[in-house]
Amino acid sequence: MVAILAVTALAVTAGAVFVVLRPSETPAQARTVAPDQRRDMTVGDLARLAPQADLSQASPPPVSPTPVVAATGGPGITLTPPRLFVVSPSTLPERVKQDIARLGHVQKVDSFDGGAVRLSGATLNLLAVEPARFRAWAPRAVADQPRVWEALNRGELVADSAATGRLGLVLGARYQVDAGPVLRVAASASFGLLGVDGLVSAETGRRLGLLPGVALLVNGPEKEVAAMEAGVRKALGPGAQVVVVGGSRTVRTRTAKARTEQVKERAATRATVGRPGSYLELYRKAAAVCPGLSWTVLAAIGQVESSHGRNNGPSSAGALGPMQFMPATWKVYGVDGDGDGVADIWSPYDAVPGAANYLCANGAGQGGRKLEKAVWFYNHSWAYVNKVLSTAQAYARAYP
Length: 400
Description:
Elements: H1 2-14, H2 27-30, E1 84-87, H3 94-101, E2 108-119, E3 122-129, H4 131-134, H5 140-143, H6 146-153, E4 157-160, H7 161-167, E5 174-176, E6 182-189, E7 198-201, H8 202-208, E8 211-219, H9 225-236, E9 241-244, H10 247-270, H11 279-287, H12 295-306, H13 327-333, H14 348-361, H15 368-378, H16 382-398
Parallel strand pairs: 3-7, 4-6
Antiparallel strand pairs: 1-8, 1-9, 2-3, 2-8, 4-7, 5-6
Helix pairs in contact: 11-12, 11-14, 12-16, 14-15, 15-16
């Protein structure tokens, strides 16, 4: 958390504050719809439409991607894992970097640009790097993935895996930077740097206005981390922050897992809806998963995403089932709504309360702007938000 706050403050100083995510496709564009599925359901049909528990065969299963063969890391690449991650409130002077490089046990240092972008109210902290230089600092599993470094060389964004899940970033989607370039999220990887949500190339960082030379990585023997940390802190003086790479990562991983388990536990205690005989009843019961959420919002999402189970996907992005969940998101927010012992992404009895669970986690129960933001997190498009909310209003008029 310390590093996140530091980078965010730097971004504000540099004016590098951005909004709003806008991916390149809508649900209607993302899926191929059979001719008999093209008719939109009218609101009057909802009470007569019965959910079906297993529609996994209604659409072809997703095709497994061709495995990526890992590269060797490239000739001449010697990995130097970072032991310390330094974030400074301003560009680090060359003299300070040289002083750190001369400290006992320090074997290598390198500095990079950094800052933050704003994604519809969420902060994304970025490092801007020269791919050939930064590759030696990456974990071996990442260094051996050509797609990561090719994406950076193309000027695209490589998101940290944790940020991808937290913000619901869609790989392959393009995101508009306010008064700046459009960035494509080309890949995700785990870099292991606390507070860093993604990488861009140095050139892209300059276009974004990130601050030059505010981040520093320090390498040396793992057993000498404490001594190196003390020396680095003394050389930096007040204002800069130093994070030990690795130790904080374990805590963060455990905390994330604990949060996931808490979400699942809460959902399991409140998400049982049984097997209602109509979608109308199902949406109404599922809304109880999220106090304050109207069932009409769930009905609108079900209509927009799959015409209430008639077009279950998979989408071109890999979303599945009547509520079009990405499998990774389903692992966190999916529920066993009918109590059969399985949280089935294809079953409306599980998917609809699962959608309520996801919306609630993003503040939908609070209504107003919070509801709009929660629907936006479901699909990163304000046109999508407008369509869902207008459809919800139509359901409210039809079923007062």
